[in-house]
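Re: weekly structure request thread

Next one in the queue (382 aa):
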Amino acid sequence: MIFYFYHLVLVEMDMKELIRPELITMKSYTPIEPMDILSQRAELSVEGIIKLDGNENLYGCSPKVYQALANYPYYYIYPDPEQRRLRQALEKYTGLNREHIVCGSGSDEIIDLILRLFLKPGDKVINCPPTFGMYPFSTAVCGGKVVDVPRDEGFTIDLAGIRSVLDKKTKVISVASPNNPTGNIITEQEITELVNTGKIVMVDEAYFEFSNVTMANLVPNYSNLIVLRTFSKWAGLAGLRIGYGIFPTEIASYLMKIKQPYNVNVAAQAAALASLADIEYLRGNVAKIVAERERLFNKLKELEWLKPYPSSANFILCSIHSNSERRSEESPAKEIWRLLQKKGIFVRYFDSPRLRNYLRISVGKPEDTEALIGALKESMLS
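Done, posted below.
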């Protein structure tokens, strides 16, 4: 028995020596929790939870998705590795030839594939924080080095700062538009300047349908410009994990070569196809969210201790001002975050120095806005 105990310890020590050391010490990505876990945390029923922390589409998917999933006859057969029908449908949706399009299990997988294609150990990826945490996470997993070039006070990217850190090791510049969590967009002039550096420029347009500003039409003109999209937000398919990228054809062909053969499952492909067959319904939901975004923004502006930032996405970033009468050691934003949780309202708090006094609030339905504003007015900072 004693010998068996020591054998286990030795195996564990050997395993750590085999794992890449930078992965042992890297910071993991902080995901959001599902509804059942949130209901346990708040000690409320799932129906009593208001989930505004994941930028999900609370109107859900198209009714045609449920029909497509129920009627699909070939779940026992592997999916099409070439994604033919889906890429053909996306050709019509994007206006770009299917040879430019590669689909993945969410845009997260596409990010990972891009970095695996271009990075050697020690190669650099330019990151513009505050932004989506998947860029530094995937960079680290792929053996790259993150070079942060922080956005300015208004959350605009620092073009001069980016140019100043470029070197031979720099392979990719990652930019989100609209940016998560700040909600602002990048201009075509800014993208052109980045593309002209000769580095791979990855523009993440996960929230494109809420802004209607895209750089996709520029992709055929450049050999180093990539645009990412997802069905998670506008189409309400976050749980099925389906996204795609628009690439120069040479890059697309390499990604099709290195991706897992069956990386998009048949349910996700069927759901995406059904969504693209019901675009007007989904655009109607997007229009509701955009209208509610503006209403939520105006209601948040009425709170003197909170500053909402204009957004082109389906969320609003807010800074929380300190109250001198407070005695809590927590940041004002974290305290509000906790108080809202007790009421069953979940928003996103980022535990980082730049965002310690900020909350990101996803846009829900009108009744969600009313509940949120009521809870904020009842808080200790009102």
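Residues 279-301 form the longest helix (23 residues). The two ends are 62 Å apart (CA to CA).
Next request, please.
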